[in-house]
Amino acid sequence: MPGSLRALYKNVKENSLRRLPAEFEKQSFIQIIFPHKKSDWAEYLNDAEKNFIDIIEAVASYQDCLLVCHDIDYVRSKLDINRHIHFVQAPTNDTWARDCSAITVYEDEKPLLLDFEFTAWGGKFEAGLDNRLTQELSSCYSAPIKKMDFILEGGAIESNAKGTLLITSECVFNSNRNIHSREKSEKLLKKVFGVTKVLCLEHGYLRGDDTDSHIDTLARFVDERTIVYLKCEDTQDEHYAQLKAMETQLQSFTDQDGKKFKLVSLPFTNPIYDQDERLPATYANFLILNEAVLVPVYQDPHDAQALKTLSTLFPQRKIIPIACSTLIRQHGSLHCVTMQFPYGIKLKT
């Protein structure tokens, strides 16, 4: 387990000003890890590669993409080469870039990469290579890196860019992550990310989710005042009560200035199964780019409604559906396999 909070506080420069940027702010590039034979995609690798290629090519149509490869030559052969795609070779256990990549803050208005401990969601899977990935890629980034002796995944946090952090208690304060009390962990989050308010959801989950309820499967900031969230209308569905309780709690939340948020609901898919296993399909797992939003779809009747809702929330960005039925077979979706790096970080590949 990670160590003392005292050591972590030393990672915050005295009298420095920190800010955790939001995903809807200007970005430098997206980081993606390509699937390979030694990952959990091996059983249906061809399908996984096609899914990832769709995401990579959509990203590269708008901005730079840093593609982490097990074998660069092999991955190059699979792609239409685009000047926005940058290749780097590094060993990985799996492909969940959202959770094992660095989380960027601005410290005194300059980007700083925070390298948190990654244990595959509380030690559920092997993650030694993924935990070392940020250090392996250090030469690719123009920004400095600070190692954080605290377990935290990128999919566990949402920022509104103005001082409010949105998380779930089931994930961030789970004893399978850190040994610190909830009070001390919350204090650390405020210090490390420069936020003044931490909003913690006590409800909401997805059947089949390995992450202990990552916030990016449930509720997301689309601007500093608006939260889009997953809503289940079927009273017979096992998710109904938890998501209804989540909605009620969201309605009670206020931002760093004490103002209520605008709330917009996303539909819930019909149950989707892989054999007898229900899969964690969610429209909340979209990816915001500088000029577009990539939205996971599942050949479900609710796809069109989800796309329409997000188009009204992002009128200046193109809404691009990405079929993600393969991704959810490994219990994640589109946002989970990507990580944005904000403006100010230059790629050195």
**Main sheet specs:** 4 strands, mixed
Count of β-strands: 19
Summed over residues and divided by their number, the pLDDT gives a mean of 95
Percent strand: 25-35%
Level-2 CATH architecture: 5-stranded Propeller
Helix content: 10-25%
Structural class by SSE content:
alpha/beta
CATH class descriptor name: Alpha Beta
Strand ordering within the main sheet: 1-5-6-7
Work out the radius of gyration.
19 Å
Individual helix count: 11
User: In the CATH hierarchy, what is the superfamily?
Assistant: L-arginine/glycine Amidinotransferase, Chain A
The tally of structural domains comes to 1
Q: Oligomerization state of this entry?
A: single chain
Distance between the termini: 34 Å
Q: What would you call the shape?
A: globular
Assign the CATH topology: L-arginine/glycine Amidinotransferase, Chain A
Task: Describe what is shown at a glance.
The model has no long low-confidence stretch (mean pLDDT 95).
Please tell me about this protein's structure.
- The chain has 349 residues and is of the alpha/beta class.
- The chain has one domain (18-342): 5-stranded Propeller (L-arginine/glycine Amidinotransferase, Chain A), CATH 3.75.10.10.
- 24% of the residues lie in helices and 26% in strands.
- It has helices at residues 5-9, 45-60, 72-78, 97-100, 120-123, 128-131, 133-136, 169-172, 182-193, 240-252, 303-313; strands at residues 18-19, 27-33, 64-69, 85-89, 103-107, 110-117, 145-151, 158-159, 164-168, 197-201, 219-223, 226-230, 262-266, 273-274, 277-278, 287-288, 292-297, 318-323, 338-342.
- Strands 1-5-6-7 form a 4-stranded mixed sheet. A 4-stranded mixed sheet has the order 4-3-2-19.
- Strand 11 (219-223) and strand 12 form a beta hairpin.
- The longest helix is centred in the N-terminal third of the chain and has 16 residues, at 45-60.
- The protein is globular and about 50 Å long.
- The two termini are 34 Å apart.
- The relative contact order is 0.18.
- The mean pLDDT is 95.
